[in-house]
From TrEMBL:
EC number per UniProt: 2.7.1.24
Gene that this sequence comes from: coaE
Function of the protein: Catalyzes the phosphorylation of the 3'-hydroxyl group of dephosphocoenzyme A to form coenzyme A.
Record's keyword annotation contains Repeat: no
Catalytic reactions of this protein: 3'-dephospho-CoA + ATP = ADP + CoA + H(+)
One Pfam family this sequence matches: CoaE
GO biological process: coenzyme A biosynthetic process
Annotated residues for binding of ATP: G10, S11, G12, K13, S14, T15
Originating organism: Marinagarivorans cellulosilyticus
UniProt pathway annotation: Cofactor biosynthesis; coenzyme A biosynthesis; CoA from (R)-pantothenate: step 5/5
Record-stated family: Belongs to the CoaE family.
InterPro entries to which the protein is assigned, alphabetical: Depp_CoAkinase, P-loop_NTPase
Keyword Cytoplasm: yes
Gene Ontology MF terms: ATP binding; dephospho-CoA kinase activity
Name of the featured protein: Dephospho-CoA kinase
C-alpha cells in the first residue's frame, strides 16, 4: 500500500515522515528523487546542459552540479522550456521512485511530495499535513533563511490548504507541539494497519 504524504512548503513533511520512521514505516521523497535524477553523471544533466548552455551560461556550478536556482528562474519565465524539462524528468522520476518503492519492506510506504495532488500522483491513500499560513511562513523562513515573500511565491504554486485537505483521506494538524503531531501519526498508523 502506497500512502501519499503531502503538505505545503514548511508544513512538516520531513518532520512527520520522521515520526512514521519511528514506527518502522519507510518512505520515498519525490523531491529527493527529483534531485537524484539530475546529479552529476546522470544522462538528464547532460541533456539539460546541452539544451540550456547557450541561454543560461551558468547552467552548471563550478563543481559540475546543476545550477538549480538559475534553471528555476529561467523556466519560470519560459513555460515552453518548463514543459520540455518536465517531459524529460517526469518518466525518470517515476522510474526511480518505482524502483525505490519496490525495495521497501514496511507494511505500507509513504510517498512524500508537496505536489502530490497537483501532479495527480497515484497512491492508495493520502495524508495532508495542515498548518495555518502564518505558522507555515514562520517555520519555512526560520528554517532556511528565505524571506516571507519567497515562501509566499512558492505557496502560490501549490494547492490551497482547503483544496489539499479536501482531497486527502487523512489530515494531520501540525500547528501544535511535536508530541501532539506524534499522537495523530500514531492514530493514522493504526487505521492504515487495520486496512492491510
Ligand atoms: P519543505 O516543503 O520545505 O521540504 P517540510 O514540509 O518537509 O518542508 P519540515 O522541514 O518538516 O517541513 O518542517 C519545517 C520546519 O518546521 C522545520 O524547521 C521543522 O523542524 C519545524 N517544525 C515542523 N513541525 C513542527 C512542530 N509541530 N512544532 C515546531 N516546529 C515544527
Amino acid at each position: 500500500m502506497i500512502v501519499g504524504l503531502t503538505g505545503g512548503i514548511g508544513s512538516g513533511k520531513s518532520t512527520v515522515a520522521g515520526l512514521f520512521s519511528k514506527l518502522g514505516i519507510e518512505w520515498v521523497d519525490l523531491d529527493i528523487v527529483a534531485r537524484q535524477v539530475v546529479e552529476r553523471g546522470e544522462p538528464a544533466l547532460t541533456a539539460i546542459t546541452q539544451r540550456f548552455s547557450a541561454t543560461i551560461p551558468s547552467i552548471q556550478n563550478a563543481n559540475g552540479e546543476l545550477n538549480r536556482t538559475a534553471l528555476r528562474h529561467y523556466i519560470f519565465q519560459h513555460p515552453d522550456e518548463k514543459a520540455w524539462l518536465e517531459t524529460l524528468l517526469h518518466p525518470l522520476i517515476q522510474k526511480r521512485s518505482q524502483m525505490l518503492l519496490s525495495k521497501t519492506q514496511s507494511p505500507y510506504v509513504l510517498l512524500i511530495s508537496p505536489l502530490l495532488f497537483e501532479k495527480n500522483t497515484p497512491t492508495d491513500k493520502s495524508i495532508s499535513i495542515d498548518v495555518d499560513k502564518a505558522t507555515q511562513i514562520s517555520r519555512a523562513t526560520s528554517r532556511d533563511g528565505n524571506t516571507p515573500e519567497q515562501i509566499k511565491r512558492i505557496m502560490a504554486t501549490q494547492l490551497s490548504r482547503q483544496e489539499r485537505n479536501q482531497r486527502a483521506d487523512y489530515i494531520i494538524d501540525n500547528s501544535h507541539s511535536l508530541s501532539d503531531t506524534e499522537r495523530q501519526v500514531y492514530a493514522i498508523h493504526q487505521m492504515l494497519i487495520s486496512l492491510l
